[in-house]
Amino acid sequence: MPRLILLRHGQSQWNLENRFTGWVDVDLTAEGEAQARRGGELIAEAGFKPAVMFTSVLTRAKRTGAIALQSAGLKDVPTIEDWRLNERHYGGLTGLDKAETAKLHGEDQVKVWRRSYDVPPPPLAPGGEWDFTADPRYAGQDIPDTESLKTTLDRVLPYWNSAIAPRLEAGEDVLIAAHGNSLRAIVKHLFDVPDDKIVGVEIPTGNPLEIDLDAELKPVSARYLDAGRAESLPAIA
Predict the structure, then answer these.
(1) Is 199 within 8 Å of 232 (Cβ atoms)?
(2) Which residues does UniProt mark as catalytic (predicted)?
């Protein structure tokens, strides 16, 4: 029975500043680093020894995974990075203060952009400060200018099917260190969460979510390793 752990990155500088981050490559705060270390301790206590770690190309996820592995005493786990595990692209909201954006556009509109399943924010204008098209990490890729959770799932799922699922199907344990929305996309897929219910699923920073899977990669059990910081989980069929 393969085990999967989903680890959302620790608190980032823009989490602290309450800004829409998306694909902007900000680093962890000291609190985020502490969350990553604690996550690694919990992973060790659970006896979890992944054969591989998948992560995004963004620093906050990569560092969270690396710190957690070091804290767990797991120094030789290979790491595979891919942009398809990036956070959701927040389009024209990128870099904005969330409270100020709510004042400008109204709380109801911002709630739709943030929490709806299939309504994306306005697209990112080309040529601006947060235009990622010239970033060498995305060379040759057809990258988005905004995303909803639905379109985030549309890019995460093919990568799950081609790269991650085969490792689990081979019986390997896998760690994924990524972001709130790319991990919510995986949770939606694994637990078959309805569109109108996934908006209520939140994944806390730095708290490993352990999922036991059957041979068909259906969840058998799931738990947050830090019960004191746990969020509610979707029902297992």
Answers:
(1) no
(2) 9 (tele-phosphohistidine intermediate), 87 (proton donor/acceptor)
Scan for tokens 């949770």, then name that residue.
187
Q: Which sign does the torsion angle of CA 218, 222, 225, 230 carry?
A: positive
pTM of the shown model: 0.96
How big is the chain, counted in residues? 237
Query: Would you kindly state where each structural domain of the chain is located, as residue ranges?
Result: 3-89+155-229
- Phi first, then psi: what are they for 41, rounded to 5°? -60, -40
Cα(209)–Cα(221) distance, integer angstroms: 11
**136 phi, psi to nearest 5 deg:** -60, -20
Residue 199: count of CB within 10 angstroms of its CB: 16
- What does the block give as tokens for 110? 């911002």
Tens digit of each residue's pLDDT (9 = 90 or more) over 41-85 = 999 999 999 999 999 999 999 999 999 999 999 989 999 999 999
Q: Are 225 and 210 in contact (CB under 8 A)?
A: yes
Our answer to whether residue 87 is catalytic in this structure is yes
d(CA 119, CA 121): 7
Active-site annotation holder among 17, 87, 100, 202: 87
Class of domain 3-89+155-229: alpha beta
Which residues fall in the annotated binding site? 8-15, 21-22, 60, 87-90, 98, 114-115, 180-181
